[in-house]
Amino acid sequence: MPSPSASPELISPRSPRVSAARRLARRNFRGKERLFLAEGPQAVREAAAFGDTLVELFATVEAAERYADVVGEARDTGVRVHLAADDVIADISTTVTPQGLVGICRFLDTPFEEILAARPKLVAVLAHVRDPGNAGTVLRCADAAGAEAVVLTDASVDLYNPKAVRASVGSLFHLPVAVGVPVEDAVEGLKRAGVRILAADGAGTDDLDDELDKGTMGGPTAWVFGNEAWGLPEETRALADAVVRVPIHGKAESLNLATAAAVCLYASARAQRASGGCRSVTES
Predict the structure, then answer these.
(1) Per-residue model confidence as pLDDT tens digits over 57-100
(2) How far is Cα 197 from Cα 223, in angstroms, rounded to an integer?
(3) Residue 126 belongs to what H/E stretch?
(4) Measured between alpha carbons, how far is 215 from 97 in angstroms, rounded to an integer?
(5) Strand, coil or helix: what is 92?
(6) Among residues of the chain, what percentage have pLDDT more than 90?
(7) Kind and range of the H or E element at 269?
(8) Is the dihedral of CA 60, 24, 43, 137 positive or negative?
(9) 112: how many CB neighbours lie within 10 A of its CB?
(10) CA–CA separation, 262 vs 124, rounded Å?
C-alpha cells in the first residue's frame, strides 16, 4: 500500500492512458474495446473477485490507503494499479463525487444458450427498459431474490452503461446476464427450457396475490419487465403465459419499475421455496 509520502504517477488528464479510460464512458468505445468502467470500492471489490474481469485500476493516494484491502486484492490478482491525482480520477469518473477508485473491466455477459442450458428456475427479462439506473437496480433485485439469470433484450439499455453498473452495486458480477436478445427469442427459448413466462404490467388481467393463492408460482418462472413509462407493448404481453399486476392496496397510483420487480421476484422466490415448489426449503 502507498506510504504517507506516496505521490500519484498519473497527474495529467491528457495522458494517453487516462484518455483511453475516459473514452469508455461512451458506448461505442466500450463496444469496440469490450471494456467498461466500474467505479467505487464495492464494484471494484466484486470485479477483483470475479476471475480475470478487472484488468486495470486507477486510485487516488487517499483511496488506495482507505481501501487498502480492495487495492491489495486487485494487485494480488495481477491487476495494474495506477496512483492518480484527484483531478485525473474526476476526469475518468462519471459521478459528481468520485470515491477515488475506478476499475477497467472486461465484458462479462453470458451467451443466452448457456443460460438456457443451466435450466434456470428464476429469471428476470428486461424488455424495452431504457433507463440505466432502473436496469442496474432490477439486476440488483434479481440477485437479492436469488434469480439465476438476467436477460436484457435488444431494445433495452446497454448493460455496461456506467449508471447501470453503479446501480447494480456489484450484482453485475454475481449472476449470468445475457444481452441483445430479441424478446421473442428470449421468451421462446425460456419456454423450451420449461420456464413459465409472466409479464409484469399494471394493466394485467391476473393479480399477483391471486397467483400466489392459487399456488401457480412454484415452478420455474421468468418475469418480463417493460419500459418505465409505458410498460410492455401488446405484442410482448401476448407472448406471456400470464400478464400479472402487482395489487395496489393503498392510494398510490403505481409502483416504479424497480420496486415492482422486487415484489414480483421475491413473490416467486418465496413460492419456489415453499413446500411443493421447485426449490427445497433448505436451498440457499
Answers:
(1) 999 999 999 999 999 999 998 999 999 899 999 999 988 888 99
(2) 6
(3) strand 122-126
(4) 47
(5) helix
(6) 78
(7) helix 257-273
(8) positive
(9) 20
(10) 10
